[in-house]
Amino acid sequence: MWSTALVRGLIREDALRSSSYSDTGYIDLLESGPPARRTLAQRAMTNNRVAAVYERLWRPIVVAALSLHGLSVVDERARAAAALHLDGEQRVLDVACGPGNFTGFFADRLAGDGFVVGLDTSLPMLERAVHDNPRPRAVYLHADALKLPFDDRTFDAVCCFAALHLVAEPCAVLREMVRVLAPGGRIAVMTSYGRESFLVRKGLELGATLCGVRVFDRTTVPAFLAAAGLLDVDQQLRGISQFVTARRHG
Questions:
Q1: Where is the Methyltransferase type domain (predicted)?
Q2: Is 92 or 161 the better-scoring residue by pLDDT?
Q3: What is the reported pTM?
């Protein structure tokens, strides 16, 4: 439980006042209230059945789709860990961690006092993360990505994979991610990409709109990170996804 104690020490005092430690193994910082109106995609992410099959069913579908387009298939988690330079005692924040597939993978690459916080608003996803990806260096947190419960410049690495296109205010989430990134720290984002073809882009946007998913263009995410003062902004486009990395000046 040493990692949980370290994480609790990083949470702002005002957020800790309403916290509790769930019997299922995550720290709960969100008070119950009237359910917010959600899109079809957002409702899916908070569904117990979807959470149970997310990695087992969805990931193979994505891999198969990439292969059909003639794209090389790489281990996304290894690529992300390399981009974040995970190899020691870093403090890592995995925003919208889902079932913890990246969170657990990252935790295995840390040492000493290093740990990773997997944060999500979906209780079914967090329960699946605790069940499927428990690690001594991983702590799961029920909290709002729009109001991260940490002080400025807290984490050495901050990431968000396959979720930015699901939130109502993606730029607000990016702003919070940059806020908690420490000097010299690295950030990584994987999200949707609308392609250059007008017909393909419009087809993707139509399908995405019906499901409540945002399709990003080529410039929005890299331009936001650059405008926030981050350096070495790099973007890799692959099929209908984009992988963007950057670092904060040391």
A1: 93-188
A2: 92
A3: 0.83
8 Å CB contact between 159 and 96: no
CA angle, 81 then 218 then 173, to 5°: 60
**Do residues 116 and 137 touch, judged by C-beta distance below 8 A?**
yes
Annotate 218-230 with DSSP letters as a single string: SSHHHHHHHHTT-
234 token code pair:
């790099």
Give the pLDDT confidence score for residue 119 in this predicted structure: 98
Q: How far apart are CA 18 and CA 133, in angstroms?
A: 26
The token pair that represents 164 in the structure block: 């930015």
Distances (CA, A) of 109 to 87, 106, 131, 181, 250: 6, 5, 20, 19, 22
Whether 156 contacts 91, CB under 8 Å: yes
Q: In sequence order, which ranges of the chain are alpha helices (DSSP H)?
A: 2-10, 13-16, 40-45, 48-53, 59-68, 76-83, 101-107, 123-132, 170-179, 198-211, 220-227
Count of domains for the chain: 1
Query: Could you tell me the residue range of the domain that residue 219 belongs to?
Result: 2-29+38-247
What is the C-alpha to C-alpha distance for residues 128 and 18, in angstroms, rounded to an integer?
A: 23
From residue 88, alpha-carbon distances to 92, 111, 121, 249 in Å are: 11, 5, 28, 20
Structure tokens at 83: 């981009």
Q: Kindly report, residue by residue over 4-17, the tens digit of the pLDDT.
A: 999 999 999 999 98
Contacts 24+ apart (CB under 8 A), 193-202: 193/217, 193/218, 193/237, 193/239, 193/240, 193/241, 193/242, 194/218, 194/240, 195/240
